[in-house]
Design goal:
Order of helices and strands of chain A: EEEHEEHEHHHEHEHEEH
Number of domains of chain B: 2
Radius of gyration of chain B: 37 Å
Radius of gyration of chain A: 17 Å
Low-confidence stretches of chain B: 1-20
CATH topology of chain A: Rossmann fold
Shape of chain B: elongated
Order of helices and strands of chain B: HHHHHEHEEEHEEHEEEHEHEHHHHH
Oligomer: heterodimer
Structural class of chain B: alpha+beta
Low-confidence stretches of chain A: 221-230
Shape of chain A: globular
Mean pLDDT of chain A: 89
């Protein structure tokens, strides 16, 4: 699913965010990328999500060499294969939960009626079937993040990237969102969660620990027993 | 369900079927989706959208109203010209070689009537020194700028004047102290309508007002005149019998040839002392002058439109700055650079199209309102509306282009990093 080979990212100004990272994640895994701030985990998310190109090294996502694709093709890859969940939800104020999720499918090439159907399905899947007509400000933080998760999975991506998904939530709602992500993983989606929270990382089958732009520990042992499900 | 023990990279290559891999092409947004996405900014910030659209609207409204009002005014002049005809020619005495005031021979009228192509002839003669007063109590110096004219009874038909009230002079009343007042004259003398009891003092003699004319566009000098019958003027006011203006109507096709013959015919001895003119030319000149003025006002409207465009550009720049996070989100959802560009371009075009449509309606309303107020036919040329809408689209495109390009160039990670 994911194969990073000696990936280096140096930002203009000489800051090295990733210093030769190699990582492979198989289809169906549930992985935590964990590390303190400044460890390069955000840059890692950008690489995995094809939002940015590496300075050196190779990034393969779902069989595609991200470095070899044009910007338009990378966009198409994101539209069809990758779903994102952000700490700040990034929901459109004033639009209903359904409209927000349907808007996430805008670039998928589906017709508007089909987008709404899929959005409704996704909201049912995250347990918000009863709050589809509510605007974000009428929802709790946990519910908002569920809407964002619904938006990320409505297009049935093979890879779901979550950047501090519980960072803005209290522990109860956070646990709910984590349970939801686990559920989605059980249903077959590869899930990578980027977090600085050790506790959350520990609760996942595989942890990739990062520090100063390098992978310092990868609990691959777990991967053999639990990570590879299908 | 295979347990992968091989290198994940090779496994991944096997995962993706070649057909799918080749189909990796960004989806196109339908026109409805482009408009919907473009409208997001307008929906979330309605007041700002309204104000920046208003700038465009004022510019377009100004231009449409300027073109509309001048077109309406011209349509009115055209209507007047059509009603009055352009075949009226006048003959009046000019100056002598020595600079004195020339006089038309008393035979001028009969001579002119014999020109081939002339259909009708009429004449007026200014009664020298005759002043018009409401009563004999008015000080002599307060003449109101009114003059007395001796007129032929055929005059009204020749100049196409209409009566506001009362009757025109006939063969009988032309011999008696009866007077028809021009529109302005009646107003200045305080006579609202013709009445048996309404009398005015012309050169010391009481005349009964039998009629009041409406303004006569082809003979504006008669608006400030008291018109009395030719023989009444000779008998009672000491009129010398010389016409000061001869009016002729000729066949439309012969107007130019008649015009050339009028001078020598009216005064064969001194053709150069005769002035021939075509009153409808004055109206046509007024039309042309109006057009020049319209050009100037149109330029002012264009400046207003340009300022409106700057307002839209400003709004768009701010919109892009404020919505960096949204741009980042959309990029992560799979929007291409082109789709982000078209989103902001669509927003800018929508904004100015709204302003343009509002402005066109406003301009239309102003034109109709003003035309109705002036009693003109309301005319807004379709090219003005089409041009206005084309101008707004052009302005909107230009105002939105730079912000849209900037939005598209924003890297997704940079956009997402914005709090």
């Amino acid at each position: 699913m994911i194969a990073l080979t000696d990936v280096t990212k140096v930002y203009p100004g000489g800051v090295t965010a990733l210093a030769g990272v190699s990582l492979s994640v198989a289809r169906g895994e549930l992985v935590a990328v964990v590390g303190p701030s400044g460890s390069g985990k955000s840059t890692m998310l950008h690489m995995l999500g094809t939002l940015d190109r590496p300075t050196a090294g190779r990034v393969r996502i779902d069989g595609y060499d991200a470095g070899a694709l044009s910007d338009a093709r990378l966009s198409a890859l994101r539209a069809r294969r990758i779903g994102f969940v952000f700490q700040q939800f990034h929901l459109t104020a004033g639009a209903s939960a359904l409209a927000n999720v349907a808007d996430g499918l805008l670039y998928s090439g589906l017709r508007p009626a089909r987008r709404r159907e899929r959005a409704a399905d996704a909201l049912h899947r995250v347990g918000l079937g009863h709050r589809m007509r509510h605007a974000p400000h009428e929802l709790s933080g946990g519910e908002r993040q569920r809407v964002a998760v619904a938006r990320a999975v409505a297009g049935e991506p093979s890879l779901l990237l979550a950047d501090e998904p519980t960072g803005a939530l209290d522990s109860a709602s956070g646990a709910g969102v984590m349970a939801l992500l686990r559920e989605l993983n059980t249903a077959g989606t590869t899930v990578v969660i980027i977090t600085h929270d050790q506790e959350i990382a520990e609760s996942l089958p595989r942890q990739v620990r990062m520090r100063d732009g390098r992978v310092v520990d990868d609990s691959t042992a777990d991967r053999i027993t639990t990570g590879v499900v299908r | 369900m295979t347990v992968r023990t091989t290198d994940a990279r090779t496994a991944d290559v096997r995962d993706a079927p070649a057909t799918i891999r080749e189909a990796l092409r960004p989806a196109r947004l339908g026109p409805a989706d482009v408009v919907r996405v473009g409208a997001v900014g307008l929906r979330t910030r309605p007041l700002r959208a309204f104000l920046s659209a208003l700038g465009i609207a004022i510019g377009i409204a100004a231009m449409v109203a300027v073109v509309g009002i001048s077109s309406s005014s011209r349509a009115d002049l055209d209507r007047t010209l059509a009603a009055l005809g352009t075949n009226l020619l006048t003959v009046s005495p000019g100056s002598t070689l020595t600079g004195g005031q020339a006089q038309l021979p008393s035979t001028a009228e009969q001579m002119v009537a014999r020109i081939d192509g002339v259909r009708s002839v009429s004449a007026v003669g200014k009664v020298a020194g005759a002043k018009v007063y409401r009563t004999d109590r008015i000080p002599k110096v307060e003449t109101n700028g009114l003059a007395a004219y001796a007129v032929r009874t055929s005059l009204r038909g020749a100049i196409g004047a209409r009566l506001a009230s009362g009757v025109w002079l006939n063969a009988a009343t032309a011999r008696y102290p009866a007077v028809v007042l021009g529109a302005t004259a009646a107003d200045r003398l305080g006579i609202g309508r013709a009445d048996r009891n309404a009398q005015v003092l012309v050169d010391g003699t009481w005349f009964t007002v039998v009629g009041v004319l409406e303004p006569a566009p082809l003979a504006p000098e008669l608006d400030t005149a008291a018109l009395v019958g030719w023989s009444a003027a000779e008998d009672r006011l000491g009129f010398d019998g010389h016409a000061t203006t001869v009016y002729t109507r000729s066949a439309e096709a012969r107007v130019e040839s008649v015009r050339e013959l009028l001078g020598p015919t009216a005064d064969p001895e001194a053709p150069s002392e005769v002035q021939v003119s075509r009153p409808s030319d004055a109206l046509a000149a007024q039309r042309a002058a109006g057009q020049a003025f319209t050009g100037l006002l149109l330029g002012l409207g264009a400046v207003a439109l340009l300022v409106g465009g700057v307002g839209v550009a400003n709004t768009m720049v701010i919109s892009v700055l404020e919505r960096r996070a949204e741009i980042g989100l959309r990029r992560s959802l799979g929007a291409t650079r082109g789709q982000i560009r078209s989103q902001f371009l669509a927003e800018s075009l929508l904004l100015s199209a709204l302003g343009g449509a509002g402005g066109a309606l406003l301009g239309l309303a102003v034109t109709v309102g003003y035309a109705v107020y002036q009693g003109w036919p309301a005319v807004v040329p379709p090219w003005a509306l089409a041009g206005g809408i084309a101008a707004t689209l052009l302005i909107g495109g230009m105002a939105g282009l730079y912000p849209a390009i900037r939005a598209a160039r924003l890297s997704p990670t940079e956009a997402l990093a914005t709090p």
